[in-house]
Design brief:
Layout lengths: L3 E10 L9 E9 L3 E5 L6 H8 L7 E6 L2 E2 L7 H4 E4 L11 H9 L9 H7 L15 H13 L5 E5 L7 H16 L3 E5 L3 H7 L2 E6 L2 E6 L1 H8 L4 E5 L3 E5 L9 H7 L3 E6 L4 H12 L1
Parallel strand pairs: 3-8, 3-9, 6-7, 7-8
Antiparallel strand pairs: 1-2, 1-4, 4-5, 9-10, 11-12, 11-13
Helix pairs in contact: 4-5, 8-10
């Protein structure tokens, strides 16, 4: 069995003055090297759970273990082992991108990554000597990810890491995160971008009203919420649905394929966006 880096059992959080709990009886675990997607509608309890795990919120009920130790037993050394990249970019505006990474790297006692190597990896080499206040939001988000990786973290918390990116750079950043996981880091990812979750996550948890509504692999969700069958784009007819039996010899679909009239053919599985809508709608 894979080593569990994060274990959460019956987590409960209620903010003072709130009639409803923000998190109610949440339990899950995350294995070493896993990219774990934590998805759900706004107000579902994702940010509260993340605040507990990053030790920004200390008042909670339940049991939380991280990196082999109860969370409450960690001291300042916890932040030597974790990296955090939240959605809102943060940095010293009057320092350059390189100076920002060097400043953050100087806070750690252990080995750190070379700022120039990190900047190149997130496509900021040409902006290394520009002040952060001059950078676009997308560039600052890439700098955010570089900063989260500077201390070679064992556990990486990311919130919307591809926000503000064009498709090429979004794919680049997904590759950077996957590299970290392949090297042994565990990634706890919150996002509303289902394409990023589908492409990057090993497992996905859907969170609704402070609870885990469902956990599965992206493929498991797609297959479980799809319908058996095929969809063919037929020349002059548009999309047509066929049962799986249509693949049998002599069937209509096979005849269309033989005549070169089928332009595309794919299974009728659900998208992760459709799964998200279905799961959250059922629980709401």
């Amino acid at each position: 069995m894979a080593e569990q880096v994060v274990t959460v059992e019956d987590l409960r959080v209620r903010y003072p003055g709130s009639a409803e709990p923000a998190v109610e009886g949440m339990s899950f675990s995350v294995a070493r090297g896993e990219v774990f997607g934590f998805l759900g509608p706004t107000g579902a309890g994702k940010s509260t759970t993340q605040r507990v795990l990053t030790r920004l919120l200390r008042r909670y009920q339940g049991r939380v273990g991280v990196l082999g130790r109860p969370l409450e037993r960690w001291g300042p050394d916890y932040f030597e082992r974790v990296g955090v990249g939240f959605e809102l970019p943060a940095g010293f505006g009057r320092l350059t991108a390189r100076e920002n990474l060097a400043a953050f790297a100087s806070l750690y006692r252990g080995p750190v990554r070379d700022p120039d190597e990190l900047l190149a990896r997130v496509d900021l080499a040409d902006a290394a000597d520009r002040r952060v206040e001059e950078l676009s939001k997308g560039m600052r988000m890439r700098l955010n990810l570089a900063r989260a990786l500077v201390n070679r973290p064992d556990l990486l918390f990311l919130d919307e890491p591809t926000s503000g990116q064009d498709p090429v750079r979004a794919a680049l950043l997904r590759g950077v995160v996957r590299e970290a996981a392949d090297a042994g880091a565990t990634v706890f990812l919150t996002t509303h971008d289902m394409a990023t979750a589908d492409d990057l996550c090993d497992r996905v948890a859907f969170v609704v009203r402070g609870r885990i509504a469902a956990v599965d692999t992206p493929r498991g969700f797609r297959l479980g919420h799809g319908r058996p069958g095929l969809v063919a784009e037929v020349r002059g007819q548009g999309g047509r649905e066929f049962p799986m039996e249509a693949l049998a010899e002599g069937g209509e679909l096979q005849r269309l394929v033989a005549r070169g009239e089928v332009e595309t053919l794919h299974t009728r599985e659900a998208t992760l966006d459709e799964v998200f809508a279905a799961v959250t709608r059922e629980r709401l």
